[in-house]
Amino acid sequence: MNNKKVVKNDDVIDIELENNKKVQGKILFTFNENGDQFILYEIDGTAYGGKLKDDNSIMPISDDEWGLVEQIFNQWMEENED
Prior knowledge:
About 20% of the residues lie in helices and about 50% in strands. It is α+β, with helices and mostly antiparallel strands. The chain has a single domain (about 5-80), classed as SH3 type barrels (Roll). A hairpin with a 2-residue loop joins strand 4 and strand 5 (about 45-50). The longest helix is centred in the last third of the chain and has 17 residues, at about 65-80. It is globular. The termini are far apart.
């Protein structure tokens, strides 16, 4: 899931994949860390994450950043258990 374009509308994003296929996802949450904005979203029950850039593209999260993202995601999951 590299270099996707995204349009945020409240809690929904429209994503245009590299093959020009468009999908809609639900924004789980966003957070800022070290000057980067991270976005976690869900498509068809699967969670994805990336770094949201100024040009509305989503870039992959580096291996070094995944630990932080997983920690924040797990905390969010605990707080949002129903």
